[in-house]
What we know:
Shape: globular
Largest sheet: 6 strands, parallel
Number of helices: 6
Number of strands: 6
Strand content: 5-15%
Distance between the termini: 29 Å
Amino acid sequence: MAPFELGGTGPDFVLFRNGPVTLVHREEVLDDTLTLLTDLGYLVPRFDARAWADKAGFASAVKQGLGFPDHFGGNLDAFDDSLREVALGTGQDVTGLVLVFTGYDAFAGRDPRTAQAILDIVADVARFAMLFGRRLACLVQSDDPGLRFGPVGATPVGPQS
């Protein structure tokens, strides 16, 4: 099963076509996008990255917000494994899963390597999930319009217009 129909033009197709991770600077663009995605049946868990002091803060937030199992190890390998389970376990009654990280520039300023690695993992898991007809994406909101990331999943992070 393909994740989209040939000739897709919907707002979710437009979002996904440039890669699974999209950088958003303007809050109103993020809010409008989340409204569209929710209306289309996506789950859109939102995480405030400003609150993450370190990798442990990130791990705690995603464990709770995504319902990771009690044995979740809290490291990036465990995030990769658990996110794969969540992405593949997303029921047929939802269109897909879009992770939303707000204030990501604050976390990236404290731990740039981990911030980049998290986005790379999301991109890799999104590609894996699409093999099974599941949709996974990530919207990364930054208060810093100059924030840039290296390629994730071998795809550059592009802006949402």
